[in-house]
Amino acid sequence: MLRIGLAAFRQPKSVPDGVDTIRRVLKDCKKRKVEIVCFSETFLPGLRGADFDLLPPDQPTMEEALRGVRAGCRETGVAAIVGMEWVSDLGLENRAFVISPAGKVLGYQTKNQITPGGESENYTADGKRRIFKVNGTTFGITICHEGWRYPETVRWPVVRGAQVIFQPQVTGSDKKGRTLKKWGEMFYEKAMQCRAAENTVYFASVNCAMRHQNSATSLIDPQGNMMAYVPYGKEDLLVADLDLTKATRFVAKRYNPKLYPA
Prior knowledge:
Layout: E1 2-8, H1 15-31, E2 36-38, H2 59-76, E3 79-88, E4 91-99, E5 105-110, E6 131-134, E7 137-141, H3 145-149, H4 152-159, E8 164-168, E9 172-173, H5 187-197, E10 202-206, E11 212-213, E12 218-220, E13 226-229, E14 236-242, H6 250-253
Parallel strand pairs: 1-2, 2-3, 7-8, 8-10
Antiparallel strand pairs: 1-14, 3-4, 4-5, 6-7, 9-11, 10-12, 12-13
């Protein structure tokens, strides 16, 4: 069994405020025996090109924030997936950092399929995909738009051993949009079910809390069934136990790329 947490919270007012939120959630996770918690896409400082009012990129602030998050993981013994923007030699990247229970950076997944428009004007891709392991569990990460429109970003880590796919996302707006009433009526939640069932793995998607969400923070089982979700607009920490014996990767392992020559 693996106990995970999905942290659905509002976009913080500042990076230091966001670090405080992360460390508070980590303490709660420790009390609830969560092994790994995932936050939404670019939780620090916010998704550039969306509806958030953000200051220009500030790399020293992000480096200080990462040190604070690492300290929080080390103090609580809880691993974390934290969305952050990061300046590299390639430019400004949309990353999801993976931090071990000991506070070590295990690596990161960069958003490579970047949403056209405001996001593509701000972020650059590094073109690499990665898998990660925490407490003996192998998992992958697909960031928002990647998981909705590019199922290959999920298949890639699964055929390499991932039993859980985390999807940090920001889908919706705090300023305008629909007010959803029923889970599963939007394309995004149907896509979550597809990504899980077509690979026979768990799919854990984390949106930030907004007034007009287009998808809920949700957990889908390996058969494509919704296990739990956070109601639209609500801040909450969703905690769930995953029976990894059910994440067999059966369908993904049957994939035969030789049948589809370029």
